[in-house]
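Hi there,

I know you've been waiting on this one. I reran it after we fixed the sequence typo, so this is the corrected version. Both the input and the resulting structure follow.
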Amino acid sequence: MRILVIEDDNVVREAIVSLLIEENYIVDEASTGEDGLSAADQEIHDLLIIDIMLPEINGIDIVKTLRETGCTLPILLLTALDSVDDRVIGLESGADDYLVKPFAIRELLARIKALLRRKGNLLMDGGLSYGGISLNTKIRDGYIDDQPLGLGAKEYDILEFLMLNKNQILTREQIFDRIWGYDYNAAIQIVDLYIHYLRKKLVPYEFDTLIQTVRGTGFSLREKK
């Protein structure tokens, strides 16, 4: 899973990023509101952690802007402000949760997992499941009836992204930016190649049809009616 951390305090940001990487999350970071909003607009993340007091654009305005444009990602606000009014303003802006600095590491991780479960993206055991396919996010492999699929790193990342956005259309650009990075020097057709590899792993179980091509746009993970 991929998390974006927008925090201008270098010490705090680096501590959060290091912690999340240790927990096997993929992490992007930004130190200003403008850079953070630009990164969030890529629509490649599963959760956003945003500090309220940011240079250029504050966290509240980032949340409002994202919600106004239809972003439904879980958002956790961080702040040193602890009054009831501050919490209410943060939540009314569209944030899903609010954490006051300084905070305990265990609480931060618990809030993240709770937000991901609330969205329906994470099971209690930390795994993912859809249409007979399950993912073990710790060992990064997929299973069908307890049989491992033997997924490569990029195959796993694509299947995870599709499962996190099940029944939704993901564009080739979104998949490319999420898996390879939007500044990666490769042709976008690499997405189709790895979708082909992934489908081949699912063919023996007749699950390859779950990954549907949306002509001219991208791909969607959904069961055929």
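Quick highlight: The mean pLDDT is 89.

Best,
R. S.
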